Amino acid sequence: MAESGSTPQPGRRLSTGRLEAFSDGVFAIAITLLVLEISLPEGSEDDLLAAVLAQWPSYLAYVVSFATIGVTWLEHNAITDYMEYADTVVVRVNLLLLLLVSFLPFPTRLVAESLGDRDAERVAATIYGLNLLLIAVLLFVLWRYVVSEGHLRADAGDEEITVVTQRLTPGFAGYVALLVLGLFLPTLAVIGYLAVALYLLIPFAVFRRRP
Amino acid sequence: MAESGSTPQPGRRLSTGRLEAFSDGVFAIAITLLVLEISLPEGSEDDLLAAVLAQWPSYLAYVVSFATIGVTWLEHNAITDYMEYADTVVVRVNLLLLLLVSFLPFPTRLVAESLGDRDAERVAATIYGLNLLLIAVLLFVLWRYVVSEGHLRADAGDEEITVVTQRLTPGFAGYVALLVLGLFLPTLAVIGYLAVALYLLIPFAVFRRRP
Amino acid sequence: MAESGSTPQPGRRLSTGRLEAFSDGVFAIAITLLVLEISLPEGSEDDLLAAVLAQWPSYLAYVVSFATIGVTWLEHNAITDYMEYADTVVVRVNLLLLLLVSFLPFPTRLVAESLGDRDAERVAATIYGLNLLLIAVLLFVLWRYVVSEGHLRADAGDEEITVVTQRLTPGFAGYVALLVLGLFLPTLAVIGYLAVALYLLIPFAVFRRRP
Amino acid sequence: MAESGSTPQPGRRLSTGRLEAFSDGVFAIAITLLVLEISLPEGSEDDLLAAVLAQWPSYLAYVVSFATIGVTWLEHNAITDYMEYADTVVVRVNLLLLLLVSFLPFPTRLVAESLGDRDAERVAATIYGLNLLLIAVLLFVLWRYVVSEGHLRADAGDEEITVVTQRLTPGFAGYVALLVLGLFLPTLAVIGYLAVALYLLIPFAVFRRRP
């Protein structure tokens, strides 16, 4: 698992196995910890149904963050799939990406708790959007580095590389637009972040039509 | 680990390795986080034994959720065992399944905290049952998709496929019946959910008798 | 990872790969969640050093539980190392073992919070000891089943099997004795549980002397 | 996964596969749990931005601990990469290292909560520094043991071994100096711990220049 083949590689061409295992662990934990941010206020037993329904911002934030971490994991997966081996820069950029991913539960809670109060909503939506934008930027940086340094697998076709690059790009414009929108209509911006994650989840399916 | 063989497969036939690793991570974390939902009320040190025993709904909810996630992991295991490779739809249906699994600690806590108050019990048992039902539905959808798209391993016999299909079906009727029961006798419904999970855990053993 | 070799095995001889991955996940999470049970009381900033030192029962409970889960993981490791393949009973006994392991943070907190109050201490130490005893029993049951059903690897020598069996046995007497002791001297019993874990951690080293 | 090759090795030369999987799990969980220590005080919705900014010690502590666990994971990775097989001592020293790593969220919270109160700051920074120092010591002990017992892979060159040894050494002096500094200027010491982690993260890149 820690070894990439029978020929040992000096000069630290790191195998991707343990990088993937560690990253998968962090993605899986961050995505599962999100549920801990959902909690009912004291005394809500009186009318539990109303209390549960009044919590809708928590569920919205939960689904947005879950979808975002999910799509990030998928794209991370695509990157490491095409990667022949990692190097020391890849490992560090990856750590920074994981820092941003595992930080996401905090802004998620901010969004969940602040909705209802307009000023707090704007602050929370902005912090949340910045976190999402930084994750998209880091994923893009990671991919560009892997491509430019020639760490790709020999069988990765030019067309496939272009497709992955195109997949990683559109998030930026969407996130920047939603960050601005969030200053005026924060709840709508959060729904917009969900739309971005769902949009990023869907079009990967075009791959499927190829033999 | 990320590659299923020596021949690279263009057209995104995704290997199941990392899908399994990520899913196992989420299952393992969700099942282990359940214990965090159990907490003693302040001041319970006065008569700790009584306080611990009075918590029985928490333990019941813990065991039901643990058994349900456990059986879901087992069935997920069976599905991916027969799956030759994943595609982009499998990955997304799987993410939705994981969302429902990692959400389960929240309704578990609702059940644990509401028992004793009849109205709250009914609401909590219904939400809990809906979550369990949706997990069963998603597992079934995942399996049907894998079978209908022909992603099965070549050596998977028709009989085996039928057995897995039959295994995934009975949950529905049970869950729907218990959802209705839960409107009248919520605690009994929760015990019923445990019975379903235990029933699903046991009969897999029939496999064993075959050589 | 999900496949044990090139020859597919019908009749559900389950490969141990995913069983190990899932179990490792639960062990790793349970052992890491223990730290969340340590928390300082409000207002302890006034004299943080005193507050931190007054927390010693929390650290003791943390170390005991960490050592116990650690040694359980090691012994689980030894069992699956000698196991050629799992079957449906192994998977279910293993789930029950994992339930007990992931429940451990709750009695750990009981012990940490109750020390100082004699009655509560006795209750907490007894619950804690029962949990530890059940873990030891389940490990033993798992091993006996694997041996008696002939699921061992062909190269597992009789002597080695005897050594593992002997390793798994001594916990029982110790735990039962400490359970009784805990009714009178609960703190001493908790220290005793640490001694058992450390004792179980150490003698494995005798293996090392063999070539 | 649990076996290092086709030849079974009696005498407990443990394969590194499951050791790595378990360790990766603990590292990944500990690094992801750090975010749970960040929480806003009640009533901070009034001026969320000010409340979020006032929390800066929490973010600092989060980043320091994340970087430290990240670099520890990298160095652990380097050690197991060069390790041909583990033995029973390696497994136990590794458990002790994991205990210290998974304990880190507690001192991280102490630092985050105490900053602002000088006396508490000094206590927290000292406990935090001791934890970091002990992690560095354990990593060093683990590596020295592996080298001195000859558990290295046959192809590990002397030069590479020296480089790893040099990598693991400098932390000590830094941590001891910062522990002393922390008695007078605790916040500066915490920033210093970040500097140490970043310093340890960067120079690994010298490996890269080698072919």
Q: What is the helix content of chain A?
A: over 70%
Low-confidence stretches of chain A: 1-11, 204-211
How large, in whole angstroms, is the Cα Rg of chain A?
19 Å
Net shape of chain A: elongated
Structure classification of chain A: mainly alpha
Largest sheet descriptor of chain A = none
How many β strands of chain A by DSSP? 0
Strand content of chain A: under 5%
Assembly classification: homotetramer
Pair of chains with the largest interface and how many residues each contributes: B-C, 45 and 39 residues
Number of helices of chain A: 9
Overall pLDDT score of chain A = 82
Distance between the ends of chain A: 30 Å
Characterization of the model:
Four copies of one chain form a homotetramer. Chain A is elongated and about 60 Å long. Residues 1-11 and 204-211 of chain A have low confidence and may be disordered. The first copy, chain A, contains nine helices and no strands. The first copy, chain A, is mainly α. In chain A, helix 1 (17-33) runs parallel beside helix 4 and helix 6 packs antiparallel against helix 8. The first copy, chain A, has helices at residues 17-33, 48-54, 56-82, 88-103, 105-114, 118-148, 158-168, 171-184, 186-201. Chains in contact: A-B, A-D, B-C, C-D.
SSE layout and pairing:
Four copies of one chain form a homotetramer.
Chain A: H1 17-33, H2 48-54, H3 56-82, H4 88-103, H5 105-114, H6 118-148, H7 158-168, H8 171-184, H9 186-201
Helix pairs in contact in A: 1-3, 1-4, 3-5, 3-6, 3-7, 3-9, 4-6, 5-6, 6-8, 6-9, 8-9
